[in-house]
Design a protein that fits this description.
With 341 residues, the protein is of the alpha+beta class. It folds into three domains: 128 residues, Tetratricopeptide repeat domain (Serine Threonine Protein Phosphatase 5, Tetratricopeptide repeat, Alpha Horseshoe); 54 residues; 85 residues, Chitinase A, domain 3, CATH 3.10.50.40. Helix content is 66%, strand content 8%. It has 19 helices and four strands. The chain has a four-stranded antiparallel β-sheet with strand order 2-1-4-3, sandwiched between helices. β3 and β4 form a beta hairpin. α10 packs antiparallel against α11. The longest helix is centred in the last third of the chain and has 18 residues. The two termini are 24 Å apart.
Length: 341
């Protein structure tokens, strides 16, 4: 999702050369210094300081469309959507007809939960560029997020007719088929993305995830390893390590479950009812379980046959993933169990 949101971010921010080309003769050199410092902070991931410098530049008189687009992009990345919307709309008043800005405003509305407004702005972009595969693909994903599946498919197909090698149209069509639970066709679309962009991290990661859903574990592990080779993001690589550990545990016949341990049947029944009504299992375990792993939300991690109480293992084996069992009386008290893999 995050990558989809940022497709047009680079277009909006531009480069320093674009800033100097777009700066008006009335903007004092101080505004340029503020922007340069802001760009330096942004490159280091210090969005708060980058925005502070850009706001100084705006207060000093900066107001070109290019400048406003870049500030809007910073606000957007920091998830200050109201401010992003304000400066991007101001950019359109400054310079009407900017296709990327119409689309980015649509993105802001979409992540703000206003799908109708998102579609309106994407339609404006389409009117400005009726033959643009990228614009039509973006409109298609907006309709998909709004729940208009048939219209979304029509726009995505049209985008690929206009440009069969449009990687974003293939990516969005992969989202579509995933939403429709057509996993083989979704995987095909992500392979098309890789055909155009061989080092695309998201496509590799999505293929790995979809193969895991299909229980094609060898293929999934292969694509997760490819993703790790491509990625320099420590958070993503950590998440991949957790996923691959889980897959290997399944291949090795290991199970994973969590539980809440209490003293009485009455208390167990009460807590089971609360979980079934929608309360978070992990929070219930943290607050009420007597077991040493309560702080971990009752999670036992992975375990193999014979490693835990026989009655517990048998109960887990009888469950489907996500199912609950309880109350289960054991020597230590009474348990509520949930299978996790």
């Amino acid at each position: 999702m995050e990558r989809r949101i940022w497709i047009f971010y680079a277009l909006l921010l531009g480069g320093l050369g674009l800033w100097f080309e777009g700066a008006s003769s009335q903007e004092e050199p101080a505004t340029v210094r503020y922007v340069q410092r802001g760009d330096a902070f942004a490159a280091k991931g210090r969005l708060d300081l980058a925005i502070e410098e850009y706001e100084k530049a705006m207060a000093a008189g900066a107001g070109s469309a290019i400048f406003l687009n870049r500030l809007g992009g910073l606000y957007f990345k920091r998830e200050e959507f109201g401010k992003a919307l304000d400066v991007l709309q101001r950019s359109l008043r400054e310079k009407p007809g900017q296709i990327a800005v119409y689309t980015q405003i649509g993105e802001v509305f979409l992540v703000s939960g206003k799908a109708d407004s998102a579609i309106y702005y994407a339609e404006q972009a389409r009117k400005l560029a009726p033959g643009s595969s990228s614009v039509i693909a973006q409109l298609g994903i907006f309709y998909l997020q709004a729940g208009f599946h048939q219209r979304a498919r029509a726009y995505l197909d049209t985008a690929l007719v206009l440009d069969p090698r449009n990687p974003e149209a293939h990516r969005f069509l992969g989202f579509y088929f995933t939403r429709m639970d057509s996993l083989d066709r979704a995987i095909e679309q992500y392979y098309e993305v890789i055909n155009v962009l061989p080092d695309d991290i998201e496509a590799h990661n999505n293929i790995a995830f979809l193969y895991a859903l299909q229980a094609k574990y060898a293929e999934s592990l292969d694509f997760y390893e490819r993703t790790k080779i491509l990625s320099r993001d420590p958070q993503l690589n950590h998440a991949i390590n957790l996923r691959t550990d889980a897959i290997r545990a399944i291949v090795d016949g290991k199970m994973r479950a969590r539980f809440v341990l209490v003293k009485t049947l009455r208390e167990a029944r009460d807590l089971l009812g609360r979980i079934e009504q929608g309360e978070d299992f992990g929070e219930i375990a943290k607050n009420f379980s007597l077991a040493p792993n309560a702080a971990d939300g009752g999670d036992l991690g992975f375990f193999g046959p014979g490693e835990l109480l026989d009655v517990f293992e048998k109960a887990v084996l009888q469950l489907k993933v996500g199912e609950l069992r309880g109350p289960l009386e054991v020597p230590m008290g009474v348990m509520i169990i949930q299978r996790l893999n």
